[in-house]
Each structure stands twice: as structure tokens, then as C-alpha cells.
TrEMBL record:
Belongs to the phosphohexose mutase family. Residues 42-180, 209-313, 325-447 form the Alpha-D-phosphohexomutase alpha/beta/alpha domain. The keyword Magnesium applies. Residues 497-558 form the Alpha-D-phosphohexomutase C-terminal domain. Its cofactor is Mg(2+). It comes from Lapidilactobacillus achengensis. GO terms for molecular function: isomerase activity. This is Phosphoglucomutase. Pfam families: PGM_PMM_I, PGM_PMM_II, PGM_PMM_III, PGM_PMM_IV. It catalyses: alpha-D-glucose 1-phosphate = alpha-D-glucose 6-phosphate.
Length: 573
């Protein structure tokens, strides 16, 4: 169907008041209409994410119903036992998130599938935990993570609590594509669901079980107790779900002096204090820094709106705060964990840390110092979850830590997605470890640099908005493959990994096979230990350039990063 045909269907439909108003406002904007009605919102292995509004290329109750109809039809083909296990559903603080959650429950109910819906918003990692704790077959999380206020999203989780694997997602997508009329999907109202025992509210019962598991994350609980009286932590939930549990989580770990950023502890879908509620951005920490200087805080922590990502800033000797990168946080955590386990005689010989291919080699070098294996996986925490499942099923390997450079970490496997609550507890313990030594975490980071080399990374994003942007993104990746990079800033490329072709090519032309699944990623290794990756985002209209260098000093590392970025960026503009 043409975009005009789709538009006419929506004009005739009995829309909700807000969608009708938005559609009327778009009536004379042909570009906006084409964007909304030309092609459906893509449902990938990470679910779907998009701007809220009318149309097939937006998040609204009708596209949420369509996605859920696909999941329900998929579950109809399962065994009676698996279908009866039901679906756990949670949601964040964004506009319409709660409504979308109950819309999904209504569609599932029409298929005789029971939903376990949280009584109020909860973090993404708690949804992952709930799938495992309640033994449901699947989970749905309504969230757009760290995106701006106009976005929302829909993520599906599998029986292990990890994001649904690609094979199952492919089958769900096939069912989604069979839904030709978004306005004729059968659904049930909440009271009907309750009467039919197809909807159960959950909340404190799951909270207590999750908190009990979080209590196991600390390795040396006595460390925090020793410094608790003088250790101040500032926390910001960035207007999101971290507010629901943070105080209980920190106090359970032994922290007593917790200061929350009051302006950002308001559950505000406008994200009024920070238009980009992303803990990797310095602006998101401005209020936390001001409060930290007022209270003399040792550590600042912020979690994104669905509390799966964590950012942190540490106090420097002069009292200012240094915002850590995701890779630096991971290196500090890995070093602390492995040193503590070794001291306790609990470091397993078959221990494994797992990271994405675009994350730093810094934590890997730290792990190698302790004779611990590092496994690389594609970007997406589901691949880390798959490694955990594989280790548990085969008995080969002992999971110790997983991370992605984009501020996602996992310490214990009772969750199968990145978990900012776990990370917050462990990071506070790391800070306490250094505090007892009379040092800051910033001092600790410098010590790791002196021992292992000065690793630095940078990620640069290039935006490609709209339908034309998607075409341009495809052209850029094609151009990289048709015109291979043989040198960057006069430094030779020694190895090229093309994850779409699943090949690794050396400078002499030797080609070998990559073991990881197909993905639209190119990674280059240079003669000076630098690596560079080019990857389209799976959730945003962006292509990202990743750089990783190692040097003798911070200044030398920055010079390298600047030089390589200047050499490659023109190919994406």
C-alpha cells in the first residue's frame, strides 16, 4: 500500500483523542505524512523504538497491539505448558508507557495468555529478573531507554530473562507482518482480564526477591561498613525507574549517607532537567556535581530512565569531579572483582568476562593479568546473556562480569540484561575499597593506567534522520566495503573484520572465517594496537564510529584519537 492509502485508513479509523489531534496537525505536512505512513516501524532483535505519534512508523497503541499480536501468535504455536507460563510486563516513566503495558496485556489476554504486570514502573533489569523469578515464557519492557522524551519503545525478553534470540524474533516478526489491519486486533479490557484470571499485578513480591539477590553482589561487605560514616554518595535516577528501589538497594549494601538529586528524582516524562537523559553525557551530571560539591560526595552515580545503564563521576584531588567512561568503569570493576576473588581464594580457573566487540581492551588486559579469559560478542546484551546460558548449560566457563562500552554492566547472572542497580552497588564498593586506602577512584584509575597502559576510547555518532537517512546509512556502509580502508592517518591496517560477510582479512590478503553471527559491523586493527569500528545503531538513526587506542599518556592518547577521527569522519558526512 502507498503512504496515501495508509494515511486514508488512519483518517477513517476511530482513533484515540490524542492521536486524532496529532494526525490533524500533520495534515498539511507531506514530509511528515510520508515519514509516518510509508513503511512500518522496524522490529529488530532489540525490539522496536521510535517517536510516539500516529502512523505505522511510530509508537502508539495500535503498533504496540500489532507487535503484541505477533508475540501472541508465536506463543499460540508453543506447547500448552509454555503458553500457560505467560508474560511479565514492566514499563518506564515515559508518556503512554503504562497504557502501552496494559494494551499489550489486553492483546495477550485475547489469546488466552496470562500477563504479570507491575503495579507501577520498574527498571528493565527487574523485568529481566521477573521473567526468571516468575518462570514466565516471555517478558515485555516498555521503554526507550536513554532516548529523548518524544520516544518510546517495546522490548521482548525470552524464557532465560535475556532479550529474545534472533531466531524467535524472526518468527515473531513474520507474524507481525501478517497483521494487515491494525484496527481490528482483538483485545480485552483490564476488568475482563482480571475476571478471567489473565492479568495478575506484581510489585513488592518481585521487589523483595530482586533485592535479596542484589544483596549477593557485594564481595567484601565489610569495606562499605568501615567507611560508611564518612562516605557520601550522590545519586540521580534522571527522572526514571531507578527512583523506585535506589534507597533500599544502597542501604541494604551498607551505605548510610545517600543524597538524591531532588530535581531529578521526580518521575517526569518531560525529562525537564536534562533533555537527553543519558548518563554518558556530562550535562546529565550538572545537578549531581553541584550537590556533590555541597556535600563533599566521594562518588556521583546516575542511571538512565529504565535503570539499565549507569554513569559515574569520581572526585579528584582538587575536589572537582571526573566523569568516567563506560570502559573506565568496567576496568575499575574488573580489577576490583578479580583482585578480591583472588584474595579470598575464590577466583575460578575457568573464569570468564564477556564484552562487546566495540568495547575497550583495557578490562581485557586487566583480566589477562589474573589469567581470566575475555570473550568478545556482538553489540547487544542478549549476546552476553547467551554466553552466560551457554556456560551454565555446558559447565564450561564461570561467568564473572559482562559489559558494553555504552555504560551497561552485569555482575551476577540472576539478571540477563545490563543492570544499573547491580553496577551501582559494586561501584560503591570499589569506591569504598580505595577510600579505605586513603585514595579516590580517580587515583585508582591512574594506577591502572600506569600498570597496563593508557587506554582511551571515543565514540562519534553521525545522525541520519528520516527515510532518506536510512538510505544514506546503507550507502555509507556499502561505500566502506567497496572502497576498503587500508590505512588511517598513514598508519597501516593489519586486519579487517567484516561481520556481515563473517570474514577476517589480513593485510597480505589472507582470509579466515569469523565465528560470531552476522552483523552490519566493520572493525579495523591498525599497526599501533589501535582498533576502529563502524556500526549502524540498532535502535537509533545513527552510524557510530568507535576508536580504541593505547598510549603512554593521556595527551598522547587524545592526539591519536583526534588524528584518526579527522581521517575517517569525512567518509560519513
Amino acid at each position: 500500500m502507498s503512504w496515501q492509502d495508509n494515511y486514508q485508513l488512519w483518517q477513517k479509523a476511530d482513533l484515540t483523542t490524542d492521536l486524532r489531534q496529532d494526525l490533524t496537525a500533520m495534515a498539511h505536512d507531506e514530509a511528515a505524512l510520508q515519514e509516518a505512513f510509508t513503511q512500518p516501524l522496524e522490529f529488530g532483535t532489540a525490539g522496536m523504538r521510535g517517536v510516539m505519534g500516529p502512523g505505522i512508523n511510530a509508537l502508539n497503541i495500535y503498533t504496540v497491539q500489532q507487535a503484541t499480536e505477533g508475540l501472541a501468535c508465536f506463543m499460540d504455536q508453543l506447547s500448552a505448558e509454555k503458553k500457560a507460563a505467560g508474560v511479565a510486563i514492566s514499563y518506564d516513566s515515559r508518556y503512554h508507557s503504562q497504557a502501552f503495558a496494559f494494551v499489550a496485556a489486553g492483546v495477550l489476554g485475547a489469546h488466552g495468555i496470562k500477563s504479570y504486570v507491575f503495579d507501577s514502573l520498574r527498571p528493565t533489569p527487574e523485568l529481566s529478573f521477573a521473567v526468571r523469578h516468575l518462570h514466565t515464557y516471555a517478558g515485555i519492557m516498555i521503554t526507550a531507554s536513554h532516548n529523548p522524551k518524544q520516544y518510546n519503545g517495546y522490548k521482548i525478553y525470552g524464557p532465560d530473562g535475556g532479550q529474545m534470540p534472533p531466531e524467535e524474533v524472526g518468527q515473531i516478526v513474520a507474524y507481525i507482518e501478517k497483521v494487515t489491519d491494525l484496527f481490528q486486533i482483538k483485545s480485552m479490557r483490564q476488568n475482563e482480564l482480571r475476571d478471567a484470571h489473565l492479568l495478575q499485578l506484581v510489585g513488592e513480591d518481585v521487589d523483595q526477591a530482586y533485592l535479596a539477590q542484589l544483596a549477593t553482589v557485594t564481595v567484601q561487605p565489610e569495606l562499605i561498613k568501615k567507611v560508611a560514616a564518612d562516605f557520601t554518595l550522590v545519586y540521580s535516577p534522571l527522572h526514571g525507574t531507578g527512583k523506585m528501589l535506589y534507597e533500599r538497594v544502597f542501604r541494604q549494601a551498607g551505605l548510610t549517607k545517600i543524597q538524591v538529586v531532588p530535581e531529578q528524582a521526580i518521575l517526569d516524562p518531560e525529562f525537564a532537567t536534562t533533555p537527553f537523559p543519558n548518563p554518558e553525557f556530562p550535562k546529565a551530571f550538572e545537578l549531581a556535581e553541584a550537590l556533590g560539591k555541597k556535600t563533599g560526595a566521594d562518588l556521583l552515580i546516575a542511571t538512565d530512565p529504565d535503570a539499565d545503564r549507569l554513569g559515574a563521576a569520581v572526585r579528584q584531588p582538587n575536589g572537582d569531579y571526573h566523569l568516567l567512561t563506560g570502559n573506565q568503569i568496567a576496568a575499575l570493576m574488573v580489577n576490583y572483582l578479580l583482585e578480591a576473588y583472588q584474595a579470598q581464594g575464590k577466583l575460578p580457573a575457568d573464569g570468564v568476562i564477556v564484552k562487546s566487540i566495540v568495547s575497550s581492551e583495557f578490562p581485557a588486559k586487566v583480566a589477562a593479568h589474573y589469567n581470566i579469559e575475555t570473550r568478545n560478542v556482538l553489540t547487544g546484551f542478549k549476546y552476553i546473556g547467551e554466553q552466560i546460558e551457554q556456560m551454565e548449560v555446558t559447565g564450561q566457563g564461570h561467568f564473572l562480569f559482562g559489559f558494553e562500552e555504552s555504560y551497561g554492566y552485569l555482575v551476577k547472572s540472576f539478571v540477563r540484561d545490563k543492570d544499573a542497580m547491580q553496577a551501582a552497588v559494586l561501584l560503591a564498593e570499589v569506591a569504598a575499597y580505595y577510600r579505605e586506602k586513603g585514595l579516590t577512584m580517580y587515583d585508582g584509575l591512574q594506577s591502572l593506567y600506569r600498570e597496563f597502559g593508557h587506554f582511551q576510547e571515543r565514540t562519534v555518532s553521525f545522525d541520519f534522520e528520516g527515510l532518506a537517512g536510512q538510505e544514506k546509512m546503507a550507502q555509507v556502509m556499502t561505500e566502506f566495503r567497496q572502497n576498503p580502508v587500508s590505512a588511517v592517518a598513514d598508519v597501516a591496517v593489519t586486519r579487517v573484520e567484516d561481520y556481515q560477510a563473517q570474514t577476517a582479512t589480513l593485510a597480505d590478503g589472507t582470509v579466515s572465517k569469523l565465528a560470531l553471527p552476522k552483523a552490519n559491523v566493520l572493525k579495523y586493527y591498525l599497526a599501533d594496537e589501535t582498533w576502529i569500528a563502524v556500526r549502524p545503531s540498532g535502535t537509533e538513526p545513527k552510524i557510530k564510529l568507535y576508536f580504541g587506542v593505547v598510549a603512554d599518556s593521556e595527551a598522547a592518547g587524545l592526539q591519536k584519537l583526534d588524528r584518526y577521527q579527522a581521517a575517517l569522519s569525512p567518509r560519513l558526512q
